[in-house]
Amino acid sequence: MRRTIARAKEDLAVIVARDPSTRTRAEALLHPALPALWAHRVAHVLHTRGHRHSARFLAYVARAVTGGIEIHPGASLGRRVFIDHGAAVVIGETARVGDDVTIFHQVTLGAVGWWRDGRREPGARRHPVLGDRVVIGTNAIVLGPVTVGDDALVGAGSLVLTDVPPGARAVAPAAEIVRRPSAEDREDAAQLLRALATSGCW
């Protein structure tokens, strides 16, 4: 019981520390990720003890309550994991998440697909392993039995299909800034469109 209370206090402290919009532990109680993490801890114990249906039901309820945080009961989460915002986070069955990890919204820690996973040995890992102090940015996708090393950062919008070494950064290309077209450029484009329209080519 003491261990459970200590872990709960840690969770609240992490939310206050990593979410600038949350100033107190009382306010942290209303953070959307909290019920997902607490429900997962119970579901994971049920899952490891063979109560798979009860575990899945609890995970299903947590997903509905949290706006789409889907953590499979088989996944293993470390201490002080922080899921910011939370919407549309998916963590697969054989994923392992280390301590002090930060995961932003719309992140997927998934498998590569049943057509490939069906050929793996029974019990083989299908999902990623995240080391300690890893940060996974918004809308990042990490697929397959890859390992993201300690202190690594996966940038927003990245697709990761291979291992990321400790301390490394996996980043997606940044948006290209295109200048606003001039009036002359816009007229050229309009003339081209009219020419294509009159020739019947779209």
Report on the structure:
This protein is of the alpha/beta class and 202 residues long. The chain is 35% helix and 15% strand. It has helices spanning 2-18, 25-28, 33-48, 52-65, 114-117, 183-198; strands at 70-71, 76-77, 82-83, 90-91, 96-97, 102-103, 108-110, 129-130, 135-136, 141-143, 147-148, 153-154, 159-160, 169-170. The longest helix has 17 residues, at 2-18.
CATH class: Mainly Beta
Strand content: 5-15%
Please report the total strand number as a whole number: 14
Helix coverage percent: 25-40%
Task: Walk across the major sheet and give the strand order.
Answer: 1-4-7-10-13
User: Would you tell me the overall average pLDDT?
Assistant: 91
**CATH architecture field:** 3 Solenoid
H and E string? HHHHEEEEEEEHEEEEEEEH
Report the structural category.
alpha/beta
Write the CATH homologous superfamily: Hexapeptide repeat proteins
- Strand count, sense and closure of the main sheet? 5 strands, parallel
Whole-Å distance between the termini? Answer: 68 Å
Low-confidence stretches: none
Radius of gyration over C-alpha positions, nearest whole angstrom: 22 Å
CATH topology: UDP N-Acetylglucosamine Acyltransferase, domain 1
Shape: globular
How many helices does DSSP assign?
6
* Total domain count: 1
Give the gist of this structure.
It is built from six helices and 14 strands. The chain has helices spanning 2-18, 25-28, 33-48, 52-65, 114-117, 183-198, and strands spanning 70-71, 76-77, 82-83, 90-91, 96-97, 102-103, 108-110, 129-130, 135-136, 141-143, 147-148, 153-154, 159-160, 169-170.
